[in-house]
C-alpha cells in the first residue's frame, strides 16, 4: 500500500484511523499521563482528532482517564490519558541448571510477580519440566491471573536454540536435547511461546535495564562454570542463521572450555568446599590476599580474555559486559580483563560489569515477550487488547 | 511527519508528489522498459497519476521514453519508460598492495570503464597516491566524463578503516597509516568520498553479484599472503563500532598469522620462485600430486580453518565465501576446509568459492558508492539528477 493512496482513497480510512490510534498509543507509552494538547504536540495530529482517538482508546481498554482534581487553583485543569499497561501481561522464565525463575510483568515491563525454585543440576527432563510447570503455575496464580491472561511467554535455556525451539546442538542439561518447550508450554498457553538461549536473553536484559542501556553494539559474556556469549549488533539481538551465534566457547583454541578449571583446581581449596562452590571460595581467598588464589584468578582471566578477544576482534563492539555467576567477583576480574584485551585487540571496547546478576536471563525473557507483543500488536495496526494467538 | 497528516493537510502535497515520483523511479529500476499500465500495477498508483509523474521524470532527466515502433500488428502499442541509468556515474577503486584498479559505472551498476595499473609492494604513500591519481583520472577521462560528473567515490584499502577514514589501527601498506584518502580525493571530487576496508568491500561484492547473492548472513574470507574477513549480518555489511569488525586474524591463537607460511616454507620450492609466487607454485605442485606440497596445503587449511571456525561459531552464518588471491586454488582448499569446519563448529555453514576473483574489492567499492546514492537521492525524496555534495 502506497502512502499516497492512503491519502487519496476512501477505502483506507479505517486503516488510517488504526494508524492514528497507534500513533497515540506510542505517544502515551513511556510518558507520564498526558493531556490532549501534549499528545497533539507529540504526534502532530490535531487536538480534535486526538480527543476522538483517545476516547476510543479508553473504550477499547488501551488507555485510562485521569480526571482533574476539583481543587486546582489555576483555571480548569485538563483531563489526562494514560496507557493501560495492565491491559495485558507477559511471562519471562529462566530454566537454569540450578534454578527455575519466572517473572510476570505488565505491558510496560513492570514486574508484578516473581517465583523462584531451585532444581537439582542432575534432574532429568521430566523432573525439570514438572518444576517448570509448578513455577509458571504459581507465578500466574499468585498474580491473580489465568494462562489466558498471558500475551506472550519466553523461556531461556542453556545451549543454542535451533529453528524448532530445541537445544539440539548442545546443552548441559541432562536429557534436555529432545525437549520441545514450545510444545510443552503450548498445552497451557494459547499465546505465542518463544524459547531462546540464556546468554542471548541476558544480553537483551543488559541493554534493556542493565549495564549496556546506552549501547547498540554489545558483546555480553556469561561467565561462570560454563562460558557463553550474547551479541547485540546495531541495536538488534543476533541469533545467527541457525540460532547458534555466540558459541565461540566451543572452539578449544580460545580457551573458554579450560578457563573455569583454573579456579576449581586452585591449590588450597578445602575438601569441605563442593566443586560447585570452589570458584566462589577462590574469589574470596584472592580478595583476602591468598597468593595461590590470586594466581588462579589471573590464569582464569588470561583464558577468558582469549575467547573475549575473539569476539571483540570479530565484532568490534562498543562495550563488553561481564555477566553471569562470576560477575559477583567483577572487582577482581575487570581490571586484568581490560589489560589482557588491550594486549590482544586492535580497538579497545569499554568493559563493564553486569548490574542485573542472577535475574538477567528471566529479565531478557520478559523483554523478548514484550518485543513480541510490540511486533504483533503495535507493529502494524491496533485492535482491542486481547491475548494474541500463535500463528 | 505522521502518515495521516500527509493525507489531510494541503501543505504536504509537494512532498507527496516527491514520494510518488520516488515510487515510479523504484518501479522503473531493475525492470525492462515499462508501460504506464505496468507501472500502475507495480506501484498501486492510478494510470493518470503515473502518466503525469512519468512525464515529469523524463523532463527532470530520471527517465527516457521509448516510443513504440509503427510496425506493430496488434493495435496501437504503448509508449514505454526506462530509468536513465546514465543520469549519473560512480567510481569504485581498489588500492591494493600490488595494484590499483578503478571501475566506473552508471546508476544501475553497469561498468562503463576499467583502468588497472600495477604498483610496487614497497611503494611509499606519495608514489602510491600519485598512481591512484593517474588511475582515477584515466578512468574518468576515458569514459568521457569529468570529476563533477561523478556522484560518489569509494576506495578500498587494506586494514581496518577508522571513523576518520584512515587505517590507523594497522595496514601493511608502507607509511600508509597517516594517509587520509578522503581529504586527498576531495581535492578532485565534490561528491561524497568513502574509504572502506578491502575485505568488507569484497564481501559486499559477493552478495551483489558473486557467490553469495542468495544469502543475508555471510562470512567472507579474503585468503592470500594475508587473511582478512568481511561480515554481512541480516543483509547489512557490519563495520563494528569503530570500523574494526572482522579483524579476527590479529588473534594469534586462531592461527591466521601463521597459515600462509606453510605454503611459503614448503620444502621443494625452487630458488628461482620469488616469495610472492611460492604459494602459487605449491598449489600447482599439490595439484600435480607433489606430496610435500599436498602436506603444506593441508597444514595451511588446518590453520585457516581455526580462524574461520572462530567467525562461524561467533556469527553462525548461512554461507562462508572463500575469496582473495588463493581462491584460484579453491579446488584444493574447499573440501578439506569443509572437513575441518565440520569438526570445529556446532552448525555447519555452506562453503563456497568466490566467483569475482581479483576485481571483488573494486566491485564492492562500486556497490558502496551506489548504496550511498540510493541513501541520499532515493532514500527520502527525489530532486533533479545532479551529483550530490558532501555534507
TrEMBL record, chains A, B:
HTH iclR-type domain sequence ranges: 21-63
Gene3D superfamilies reported for this sequence: 3.30.420.40, Winged helix-like DNA-binding domain superfamily/Winged helix DNA-binding domain
Family: Belongs to the ROK (NagC/XylR) family.
Protein name per the record: Transcriptional regulator
Record organism: Asanoa iriomotensis
Amino acid at each position: 500500500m502506497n502512502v499516497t493512496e492512503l491519502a487519496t482513497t476512501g477505502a483506507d480510512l479505517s486503516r488510517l484511523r488504526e494508524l492514528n490510534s497507534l500513533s497515540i498509543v506510542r505517544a502515551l507509552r513511556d510518558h507520564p499521563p498526558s493531556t490532549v494538547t501534549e499528545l497533539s504536540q507529540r504526534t502532530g495530529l490535531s487536538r480534535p482528532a486526538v480527543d476522538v482517538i483517545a476516547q476510543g482508546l479508553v473504550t477499547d481498554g488501551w488507555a485510562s482517564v485521569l480526571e482533574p482534581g476539583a481543587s486546582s487553583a489555576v483555571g480548569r485543569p485538563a483531563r489526562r490519558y494514560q496507557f493501560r499497561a495492565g491491559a495485558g501481561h507477559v511471562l519471562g522464565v529462566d530454566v537454569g541448571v540450578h534454578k527455575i525463575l519466572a517473572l510476570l510483568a505488565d505491558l510496560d515491563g513492570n514486574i508484578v510477580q516473581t517465583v523462584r525454585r531451585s532444581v537439582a543440576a542432575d534432574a532429568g527432563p521430566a523432573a525439570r519440566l514438572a518444576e517448570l510447570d509448578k513455577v509458571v503455575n504459581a507465578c500466574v496464580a499468585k498474580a491473580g491471573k489465568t494462562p489466558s491472561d498471558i500475551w506472550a511467554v519466553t523461556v531461556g535455556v542453556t545451549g543454542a536454540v535451533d529453528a524448532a525451539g530445541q537445544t539440539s546442538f548442545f546443552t548441559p542439561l541432562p536429557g534436555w536435547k529432545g525437549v520441545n518447550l514450545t510444545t510443552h508450554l503450548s498445552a497451557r498457553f494459547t499465546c505465542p511461546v518463544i524459547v531462546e538461549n540464556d546468554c542471548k536473553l541476558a544480553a537483551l536484559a543488559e541493554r534493556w535495564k542493565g549495564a549496556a542501556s546506552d549501547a547498540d553494539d554489545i558483546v555480553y559474556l556469561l561467565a561462570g562454570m560454563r562460558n557463553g556469549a550474547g551479541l547485540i549488533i546495531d541495536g538488534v539481538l543476533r541469533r545467527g542463521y541457525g540460532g547458534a551465534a555466540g558459541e565461540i566457547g566451543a572452539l578449544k583454541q580460545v580457551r573458554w572450555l579450560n578457563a573455569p578449571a583454573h579456579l576449581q583446581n586452585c591449590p588450597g581449596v578445602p575438601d569441605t568446599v563442593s566443586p560447585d562452590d570452589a570458584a566462589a571460595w577462590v574469589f574470596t581467598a584472592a580478595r583476602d590476599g591468598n597468593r595461590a588464589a590470586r594466581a588462579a584468578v589471573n590464569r582464569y582471566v588470561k583464558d577468558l580474555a582469549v575467547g573475549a578477544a575473539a569476539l571483540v576482534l570479530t565484532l568490534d563492539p562498543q562495550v563488553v559486559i561481564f555477566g553471569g555467576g562470576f560477575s559477583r567477583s567483577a572487582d577482581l576480574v575487570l581490571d586484568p580483563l581490560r589489560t589482557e584485551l588491550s594486549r590482544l585487540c586492535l580497538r579497545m571496547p569499554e568493559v563493564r560489569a553486569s548490574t542485573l546478576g542472577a535475574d538477567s536471563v528471566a529479565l531478557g525473557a520478559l523483554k523478548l515477550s514484550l518485543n513480541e507483543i510490540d511486533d504483533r500488536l503495535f507493529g502494524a495496526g491496533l485492535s482491542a487488547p486481547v491475548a494474541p494467538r500463535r500463528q
